[in-house]
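Protein 1 of 2
SEQ + STRUCT:
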Amino acid sequence: MESKFNELQKKRRSIYAIGENVTADKNDIFNLVKTTIQQSPTAFHSQTVRAVVLFGEKSNKVWDIVEANLRKVVDDDEAFKNTQAKIASFRAGFGTILYFTNTPKVHELEEAFPLYADNFATWAEQGIGGAQQAVWTALAEQGIGASLQHYNPLIDNDIKKEFDLPAEWTLRAQMPFGSIEAPAGDKEFLDEAEQFKLID
């Protein structure tokens, strides 16, 4: 069975060699991210996903914050050089998307539907994961490379303070994106018999 969707998914890879050579308009990228997240499903249509799209120096500031906070916890100078090089690769991109969960909405649902209360935090994670996957694939369709990073909660307070973001938003991931300067390597898969079962 042919699937255009799966052909796009094959383009969605973790691209670490990114650059600023993106010809798409910033507003078009923002609108792509916005529409993609709006069309992504969430449990109870809770719409708990929040996103901030940053470009240029604002995007670089995210990675300045990451570097400064990691410097506080990495004592080994030699090891920190590797960390700096990794962060520099993210800073080299065209922009960064910050993904958040609107935590009060999760708590509101827990109170409104006590029978399912234990599930709403998990469902919110599923919602943001789906949104990230969808945005990542939508960017790949446009020839824009990205990867998903997780420096939260180490950077949470500084990010919210720097960009004047609501305290109740919980930072879940950071997605640096940009032009694809080098392709991803080959992708390896588990043995299918280990991963899948067909029961008919």
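Protein 2 of 2
SEQ + STRUCT:
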Amino acid sequence: MSKFRIHMARRQGELKAREKGYDTFPVDPFVIAESEDIFVEPKDPGRVGVSGGIIFHEESVGIFYATDIKSEGFRRFTVAHELGHYFLEGHPEEILKTAPIHMSRAGFSQGTSSIELEADHFASGLLMPSKLVGEVIGGNRVGLDGIVALAHLAECSLTASAIRAAECCDYPMAVVVSSGDKIAYAFLSESFKKLDRCQSQSKSGPGRGIKRGHCV
């Protein structure tokens, strides 16, 4: 997956938010789906294992999202992710090669396919356009208060907001997500990656092999 394709997917999300008239937070993926005549419904909470999915049936499109996950921010991200599959060029065709129903695990998980990563980045740009993020956090040092404020205004999770803040600010930031006593994945801001100390550690230090990613 090239950085260019990821950047373009995120950019398409931002452009779609602007096209739909959003110049303030929050961006509502449910309303955007409705404007496209896409039917959205919750998934049976007893059926676990996927975050959501999209169905292409003739001229109709439907989206479903998990309800066993209680985070409202995650549900909003899931719907935005499925909208990525709808709006991004080539995604419907790729999905329809195998079946009209596509199951997703939104959230930048490791080992994710290229179209899943693109849909995740589309969702990130759609829900948190860089212009609106910048108005909340500014371009300088970002603290927890700024991330909490962004999460509240954008109606997204703290983790997703922290990562988006790192993408949009000039100050070096690192977001590390752990599972138990192991590091699951991490995200380093561009300014952080330019630090000499970070570069030396990436070559020979204990952090070698950590995968960058996002989590909602």
